[in-house]
Amino acid sequence: MSGNSIGVLFKVTTWGESHGPATGAVVEGCPSGIDLAEEDIQKWLNRRRPGSSPGSSARKEEDAVKILSGTFQGKTTGTSISLLIENTNFEKGAYENIKEVFRPGHGDFTYFRKYGIRDYRGGGRASARETAARVAAGAVAHKIILQAGVEVVAYTAALGGIAIKRGKNLEKTVTYEDIAANHLLCPDPDAARAIEDRLAEARRSGDSLGGIVEIIVRGCPPGLGEPVFDKVDADLAKALMSIGTVKGVEVGAGFKVAEMTGSEANDPMTPEGFLSNHAGGILAGITTGQNIVLRVAVKPIPSIEKLQKTIDVRGNPAELSVKGRHDVSAIPRIVPVCEAMVMIVLADCLLRQEACKFKR
Ligand SMILES: Cc1cc2nc3c(=O)[nH]c(=O)nc-3n(C[C@H](O)[C@H](O)[C@H](O)COP(=O)(O)O)c2cc1C
Asked: Which of 6, 131, 272, 275 is deepest in the core (most CB within 10 A)?
């Protein structure tokens, strides 16, 4: 009955439901003496907020974070950091039509089967509201990885079947500014325009869309990751798969390796470094020092207006059209959530590697 925490030395626990009074995170293991103010966290939360892109829901969530513990005079004290985000924007009656029926593709059916209780208001813990707490905790992790010179950049690589055109060096050169240039967090402005049209079309037809988010980690030192069960790729995959709508994670060449020969897949090594990066910066669960390259498959949002077959809580056949304020796609709002989860894992890996050095 647990499952709400991630990490070993840098440990994040999230709590709260979409329609409770608040949601939040408790961050344990953050070293003392790090500058940390609410504004440092707020700027990350603002990127995740609904309403910032054409595919986003029209919900107006303030997402204002409060630091309740773990800092003194603007610096971390080394004790648990408790972060609170109040839920301020409820739409009364918005969930009446799903009170008795399960939304296909959502967690309604499985939560009911597991817990025997139907909290129909917005998905409870399965709601994207929970991801606000992840992003707030990720902002704390960012402080740690920054000190080690590690940078995490994520962006929209494809949405609704429209993919970005990539220059050969995209992974090396893409910046936060490139991505922030449009509200789809997409580094290719032409693709972004085509995606906007595709989103508008999907919204008109009462449907939703999926896509791909890419995450690049630059400046990562070699040696991070704890074989055999806490290999860095295993930890990253778990962290990313724990986000709602994520149905797949690829590392480096990903599923393409299945079609390659050994001579194609291996990254040749020279005294000057690796000649390619099919491994995505990870070998045997340990970072190589190259960029870590990750890709996540994001499924379409389950709540759609199009009429679908379903069942009610008693198992009777029913039909459902979900009205109200829903995202057309989890992308781009999921982009900062992916960044946050990767930063949380890397902060933990960095602290564990320090502990490993201490032993020597
Ligand atoms: C950023 C983000 C926004 C989301 N917005 C919605 C939404 O508006 N409506 C909805 O039904 N699901 C939304 N979801 C998806 C559900 O949370 C998710 O599909 C559900 O928890 C079931 O989990 P699964 O897709 O991993 O199986 C969103 C997910 C994310 C990450």
From this structure: 131
Tell me how far the alpha carbon of residue 298 lies from the centroid of ligand 1, in angstroms: 10
Tell how far the Cα of 327 is from the centroid of ligand 1, in angstroms: 8
Helical segments of the chain, H only? 38-48, 108-115, 130-147, 170-173, 176-180, 189-204, 232-241, 262-265, 334-359
Stated pTM of the model: 0.96
Q: What is the pLDDT of residues 101-134, one digit of tens each?
A: 999 999 999 999 999 998 888 788 999 999 999 9
Cis-peptide into 228, omega within 30 deg: yes
> In the structure encoding, which two tokens stand for residue 135, read together?
């992003």
On the 0-12 / 13-18 / 19+ scale of CB atoms within 10 A, 72 is exposed
| 359/356 Cα distance (integer angstroms) | 5
Residue recorded with tokens 């199009």: 306
Give the tens place of pLDDT for each residue, 294-321: 999 999 999 999 999 999 999 999 999 9
